[in-house]
Amino acid sequence: MAASMARSGLRSASFLLRRGAKSNAAVAPAKRSFSASTHDDAYETAKWEKITYAGIVTCTILAIYNLSKGHPHFEEPPAYPYLHIRNKEFPWGPDSLFENKHADH
């Protein structure tokens, strides 16, 4: 790798010597033209700002529509007697910590 870097440096030095280093120093290097430099930055910024606002409005409308529809309510499953078999009472009483059978829903 170091050898290839040295060869590249020698090539560029020999090129400068052949063209004449003094005449090359007086000429300003040409400006590089990139493909993105032809776009108008203000136009692109305004375009993406409009797209962003349109997306915000669309998402807000869809969220309001989805939240206003409501959700389905299902019937309670039948009370099967084998689901709550307790052979021994809990130390805190007959109900488990997460069930409150006496509260009105």
UniProtKB/TrEMBL annotation:
InterPro entries reported for this sequence: Cyt_c_oxidase_su6a, Cyt_c_oxidase_su6a_sf
Record carries keyword Heme: no
Protein species of origin: Ensete ventricosum (Abyssinian banana)
Gene Ontology MF annotations: enzyme regulator activity
Upper lineage: Eukaryota, Viridiplantae, Streptophyta, Embryophyta, Tracheophyta
Short name of one Pfam family: COX6A
UniProt main location, coarse: mitochondrion
Localization per Swiss-Prot or TrEMBL: Mitochondrion inner membrane
Similarity-based family: Belongs to the cytochrome c oxidase subunit 6A family.
UniProt superkingdom: Eukaryota
Protein keywords: Membrane, Mitochondrion, Mitochondrion inner membrane, Transit peptide
Any one cellular-component term (Gene Ontology): mitochondrial inner membrane
GO biological process: mitochondrial electron transport, cytochrome c to oxygen
Protein name: Cytochrome c oxidase subunit
